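debug: dumping io for the single-chain case to check the tokenizer round-trip. Nothing else runs in this session.
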Amino acid sequence: MKLRALVVLLPLAACGPSKSESIQAFLTVTAAASSAQARAVADAQAGPNLVLPAALTLDFSGPCTLGGTVGVAGAYDTSGSGERAAFDLTASFDGCREATGRLDGDLRWASVAEADRFVATMDGAIDYDGSAGNFTCDFDLSISVDSARTTFGGSFCGYDVATDLRVAP
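debug: decoded output
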């Protein structure tokens, strides 16, 4: 009898967030990461001896909009002719509250932008708590843009970003 109850409950425990919940968490993660990156770059550029453009080493920790903290570390490079920008960052969220939810967890985000192409990847794991629910989510995202097309790839909370969540240009 106990085995039958366990077998019935097992699929319920394995269920993850719905597609709409995953989209809300996706939007929260990407917005929080973008905001944290901008703040980390601005903080690094505030150095007294910095001459732009420059390669920056980021080591930032600060409050999130509605509480909690975010830390960003890594490299951000816009040095040279302005034809290329690249970064390789890690971000850590600790009770980071934004308007669309609270995040805990870590991600790695890398990007290269050149005159004729843009490539970015983001992967990690977060705990999300917001109006869309409360769940843990792994993700590995990619975007590639060139003169011919924009391609999204990877997964978020077990859903294919391009086909299931329909993230598209």
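debug: round-trip ok. The chain has a mean pLDDT of 84.
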